[in-house]
Amino acid sequence: MRVAVIGAGVIGLSSTLCIHEQFQGLVPSLELELYADRFTPHTTSDGAAGLWQPYLSDGGNLQETLWNKETFDYLLGHLHSPAAKEMGLFLLSGYNLFTEPVPDPSWKNIVLGFRNLTAKELELFPGYSYGWFNTALMLEGRNYLPWLTNRLTQRGVKFFHRKVESFQELFSQGVDVVINCTGMRSGELQPDPELQPGRGQVIKVLAPWVKHFIITHNMKSGIYKSPYVIPGSEFTVLGGIYQHGNWSEENSAQDHRTVWESCCRLLPALQTAKIVGEWTGLRPARSQVRLERESIRQGNLQGEVIHNYGHGGFGITIHWGCAMAAARLFGSILQEKRKVTSSPQPRL
Amino acid sequence: MAAPKVAVVGAGVIGLSTALCIVETCPSSSVTVLSAQFSPNTTSDVAAGMLIPHTYPGTPIHVQKQWFKETFTYLFAISNSAEASEAGIHLVSGWQVFKSTPKEELPFWSDVVLGFRPMSKAELQKFPQHQFGQAFTTLKCDCPPYLLWLEKRLKATGVQMHNRKVADLWELHREYDIVVNCTGIGAHQLVGDKKLFPVRGQVLQVHAPWVKNFIRDGDGLTYIYPGIHRVTLGGTREKESWSLSPDPSTTKDIFDRCCSLEASLQEAQDIKVKVGLRPSRQCVRLQREVLSQGGVKLPVVHNYGHGAGGFSVHRGTAKEAARLVVECIAALQGSSSRAKL
């Protein structure tokens, strides 16, 4: 049984690991391969700050809320393991700030110690009159992706550095199941008008005195269009750009100014922070994550595809729940194949 | 009296902050800081500088709370300004955990720090050996940055700083009108205060930049305090020990205790070991005294004996010391005008 995963961001690598962990023992003939044209540190996941935090509203999508929770609980369980530092996993507390009262988020009981901000705390953030404090997790892509890659290599998964042009290309090579984790460029394999880039630009600075994440929200503009500061293990990420439909992967001088000025207003001490980098990434935005099976038939080529893309700005937040859901879909494919092979073949 | 000459002896957090308060309160005075040690060689440089008060048995609680509140408010404003990183002042959140529920669940300072509340069950799961905990956000003063920032502000107001070992306060009576004694543990010898005793603390300063929250065991012996560049792991409280040499078995013990609170510290790098002697006393000695010899008087203001709580109350006690200096100046002016009659 040959399974090919396309995509080596957090979704592709974790889906591969989840499937291997669950099925390698059960399906001795399982051959897992991973195809991608970009590997760490050049994937979208590598540029993300790595903070576990879903969007403010789940839009009624309970499924995604459950996947977020599964991811948080899974990571929390790994916090005390010796691998945590290598994974880039650690606890981080911080602030979400608003200019008006807002309903509590779907994830308030998933994170640790969620509470409203006191008046004194709000004095730290002039212009904001309401907010939350909680402890969440950081999972830095720059560490997590290499860690996942090592685990997969140890397990004998084969990696192929090449761009896959079509699902058929893999089916014609004898692949039985494709796991499509192609993120932003899924549309190149199969057009999907619902998938749009949510362009983001971040500035990386050295500001080691910042020990909290600070995420501001402008309910009118929308998510990630308001300044945010996220301290990592090596540098701090300043952001606040979300441009729907913008495919440019180039850093923009204007966006740099927007991010720099708004973050320095939020945290005046940042003015003395040294800038060490700048990065633009395209969040693979979609009304909801596409996580479903599809049977692809073209001529005499046939195969199963499990789509797992469209995680917007919450890929790291939701990744493990989705990997497990993809593994479940894979399990049902296996079930069906077994039924087919075990039922008596009519002899003509 | 024109430009009273004030000598502040000691250049740790108490000496420097007291000198600054004197300059702020009596701008006409001429202040000089004299010390055998300056940053990075003071006791303050070893301390993590966390604003979590130590309780002095001999001082009324409302006074300690006032000192802490003044200090917290002062540093809160700096942490919120563009100078925060230079001054080394930053907010840090975390947990104080107890193996058994303490008698006093609400310490006197709980409404001064930010967001103080009991830990949830989910949060306590991270500490299986602990039954109870408190979560809050407080401030940390990193040294040397904070002391260097104080020195810079002092120099900007014209305060002179001299490296000088003062063997006897009386030796200053010709050059200075008032002496302020901020010598910390040095007061044991300098003024022969037998009520002052060292409580030796050994700490490790490690590179573990992924540790962003503080963790403190309520027994005060084991703590993890993330600073700007290093995390301070502690510690010990050895009464009457005067040794400034790091002890290797203590180092291992501190490291093990901290790893049991935060497993990822096993990966900490570049471990530096430091020792400081907390200048401990039943209560901070914050009072005036007049030394006299052969008809000559020397007013002294004492401000020492802050033990484990120096950073937590430094600004509050510095302001009180400055008020006492003002009283000394008034007394000198009173007596000098009487002398003119």
Task: Offer a few descriptive terms.
heterodimer, A: 348 residues, alpha/beta, Rossmann fold, 9-stranded mixed beta sheet, 6-stranded mixed beta sheet, 15 strands, B: alpha/beta, 9 helices, 30% helix, elongated
SS-derived structural category of chain B? alpha/beta
CATH class of the domain at 1-50 and 140-193 and 287-347 in chain A: Alpha Beta
As a whole number of angstroms, the C-alpha radius of gyration of chain A is 21 Å
User: How many strands, which pairing sense, and closed or not: the largest β-sheet of chain B?
Assistant: 9 strands, mixed
CATH names the topology of the domain at 1-50 and 140-193 and 287-347 in chain A as: Rossmann fold
User: How many beta-strand segments of chain B?
Assistant: 15
Give helix % range of chain A.
Answer: 25-40%
**Can you tell me the CATH architecture of chain B?**
3-Layer(aba) Sandwich
Count of individual helical segments of chain A: 9
Structural class of chain A: alpha/beta
How is the main sheet of chain A built? 9 strands, mixed
End-to-end Cα distance of chain B, whole Å, is 15 Å
Summed over residues and divided by their number, the pLDDT of chain A gives a mean of 95
Amino- and carboxy-terminal Cα gap of chain A: 27 Å
CATH superfamily of chain B: NAD(P)-binding Rossmann-like Domain
Mean pLDDT of chain B: 96
What is the chain-wise order of helices and strands of chain B?
Answer: EHEHHHEEHEHEEHEEEEEHEEEH
